[in-house]
Amino acid sequence: MRTRNILWPTDFSDTASHALRYAIEMANLYQVGIRILHVVDQPFGDENYMVLAITPEELAKSMEDAAASKMHELLGQLNTKLKIETVIRRGDAIDEILAEANSGDIGMVVIASHGRTGLSHFLHDNVAEAIANKAECPVLVVK
User: Fold this and answer.
1) Within a domain: residue 91?
2) CA angle (64, 65, 68) in 5-degree steps
3) Arithmetic mean of pLDDT over the chain
4) Number of domains forming the structure of the chain
5) 24 part of a folded domain
6) Which end of the chain has less Cβ packing within 10 Å, N or C?
7) Residues with Cβ < 8 Å from 5, sequence gap 6 or more?
8) Is residue 116 part of a domain?
């Protein structure tokens, strides 16, 4: 942990931004870098739903470009001397975050919990819970 980067997965929400403060604090404490990860969902094909006016590949590329723009804006707001690396992946959020967390050079994951309860908790994948249960490194879940 003390020599490996901290992974901060983000969906660019306010809750995720709150978790970034913890990631920065931990990175400063251990004098390590931060890897920022955003996962773009893979869109479904128009052959299944006949809804998209563009191809799934074009939609995914557009979503990746928007994420890159948000990532660039976020980096511009950070006032830190820490080494910061950004990664944008396409696929299932849980699978991609776990792949990054278990890659061998991540010492800790700092992830936001959106705090869903009741029926909403059962209807949506709980990304933070899945990462906490399946990551091979320590996970700090921030509310």
Assistant:
1) no
2) 85
3) 85
4) 1
5) no
6) C
7) 27, 32, 33, 34, 35, 83, 85, 105, 106, 107
8) yes
* Structure tokens belonging to residue 18: 């709150």
C-alpha to C-alpha distance for 19 and 66, rounded to whole angstroms: 21
> 83-118 pLDDT, tens per residue?
999 999 999 999 999 999 999 999 999 999 875 544
Cα of 30 vs its chain's centroid, Å: 21
39 membership: H or E segment, kind and range: strand 34-40
Q: Which residues are CB-contacts of 112 (< 8 A; sequence separation ≥ 6)? A: 10, 13, 15, 16, 18, 19, 128, 141, 142, 143
In the chain, at which residue ranges do the beta strands (DSSP E only) sit?
A: 5-9, 34-40, 84-90, 106-112, 139-142
Q: Within a domain: residue 143?
A: yes
- Output the pTM of the full model: 0.81
From CA 71, how far away is CA 80, in angstroms rounded?
15
Spacing of C-alpha 52 from chain mean position: 26
Give the rounded distance of the alpha carbon of 113 from its chain centre. Answer: 12
* Number of other residues whose CB lies within 10 A of the CB of residue 58: 12
Domain coverage including residue 115: 111-123+130-137+139-143
